[in-house]
Design a protein that fits this description.
The protein is an alpha/beta fold. The chain folds into 2 domains: 196 residues, Rossmann fold (3-Layer(aba) Sandwich), CATH 3.40.50; 131 residues, Orthogonal Bundle (Isoleucyl-tRNA Synthetase, Domain 1), CATH 1.10.730.10. The chain has 13 helices and 10 strands. It has a 5-stranded antiparallel sheet. Helix 3 packs antiparallel against helix 4, helix 10 packs antiparallel against helix 11 and helix 11 packs antiparallel against helix 12. It is elongated and about 85 Å long.
């Protein structure tokens, strides 16, 4: 039942990604496939062989609403489960635990090797590790999950498998179950699970391979409703993404997203999304004007305009290299509207320089394309 639901949900997400022209890797995986289960078992056996895992009777947090044990990091300050807002309580039972407290120093050293964007989340995670007072419980009484070999009732915690994403990703590429994998360049994830998904992945990468899982991690924020509340089905303020796709198209959503700062929760704003519908029109008209001048036999260049764009382009490249997509997008967008359209094109009506304008616009397109993959269709229509 749970697997069927997961498969159907995956198909819906795949359709959503296609509809907003979002990349979907051909090497995707699911965490309950035979390959994933084999890697989870390999992880368990490797930890056991290295003496990094033990079985004990310990207290764990239990959520009666979802009828399963949960990680302590999934409880908010009011003692409720962050996923379903249900009240939790402590139970005692036997389970498997990964040694965590004995390796605080080593884990913090690993974290220092990773480039966090924004940097404040590195400090938040380091401080959270300082406050840790128990080892990581990875196998408890659950209704679903990957079963532990030789155990009747115990199943792996969800994070036990999710923390193997580098290995799972590499295995989906090689089609071979293995704990060996390269150090990846980048992880994107939201800020509310840095103490779970990020930290647990760092733990596994260190215990298995003595390496960091990725060189850089970019922390994203949540979408908020108009009252500043996190969008959540359990709260009841959730609207299907097609509410916005049907109204503003994929460009409206992409425009709103591009204007959002990393690591910051952002209110969904219809007015901002509507701005995404204006950009294609402006780009198309700018290119039409340049082509009109050329058809009229006008020609010419303006070295000052080219130099200004070159200087701006260098700043844009800097922001991208710093993973500051918000600043990069604003610089591209502002230059296009304020300088190219409002200034350069207006000035060119008196002193024509279509060759410079065409070069500048053509060089801007690949930058816009990062945020709007169908941009070339707009210009060529």
């Amino acid at each position: 039942m749970i697997i069927e639901l997961s498969n159907e949900t995956s198909k819906l997400y795949k359709k959503l990604f296609d509809d907003i022209e979002m990349g979907f890797s051909e090497h995707s995986y699911n965490s309950y496939s035979e390959l994933s289960q084999e890697i989870a078992r390999l992880s368990f056996e490797d930890l056991k062989d290295k003496g990094l895992i033990y079985k004990a009777d310990e207290e764990y947090t239990y959520c009666p609403k979802c009828e399963c044990s949960i990680a302590s990091s999934e409880i908010d300050e009011n003692g409720k489960h962050t996923r379903d807002n249900g009240k939790t309580f402590l139970k005692k039972g036997h389970g498997w635990f990964i040694k965590t407290l004995d390796f605080k120093k080593e884990f913090k050293e690993q974290i220092e090797k990773i480039d966090f964007k924004p940097i404040k989340f590195k400090e938040r995670l380091l401080n959270w590790i300082d406050e840790l007072d128990r080892d990581w419980s990875i196998a408890r009484e659950r209704n679903y999950g990957i079963p532990i070999p030789g155990e009747e009732r115990l199943k792996f915690d969800t994070w036990f498998t999710s923390s193997l994403t580098p290995q799972l990703t590499w295995a989906s590429h090689t089609n071979k179950p293995s704990l060996e994998c390269p150090i990846f360049d980048l992880r994107f994830q939201s800020h509310d699970i840095i103490s779970t998904w990020a930290f647990y992945t760092i733990i596994k990468s260190y215990h298995h391979n003595k390496q960091i899982p990725w060189k850089q991690i970019i922390i994203t924020g949540h979408a908020l409703d108009e009252d500043g509340e996190k969008i959540s089905k359990s709260i009841g303020n959730f609207l299907t993404p097609y509410t916005y796709i049907d109204k503003f198209g994929s460009n409206g959503i992409r425009y709103w997203s591009a204007r959002s700062k990393i690591g910051i929760d952002t209110i969904i704003d219809d007015n901002i999304m509507s701005g995404g519908t204006k950009l294609p029109i402006k780009l198309k008209n700018a290119m039409k004007f340049i082509k009109f001048q050329q058809k009229k036999g006008w020609f010419g260049r303006d070295k000052n305009k080219e130099l200004e764009w070159e200087e701006t382009k260098n700043k844009i490249e800097f922001h991208f290299n710093e993973s500051d997509t918000h600043a990069a997008f604003h610089m591209i967008y502002d230059f296009f509207f304020s300088r190219l359209c409002d200034t350069f094109i207006e000035e060119s009506k008196k002193e024509s320089c279509p060759d410079s304008l065409e070069d500048i616009l053509n060089e801007m397109v690949p930058y816009f394309e990062i945020f709007f993959p169908n941009i070339r269709c707009w210009i060529s229509e």
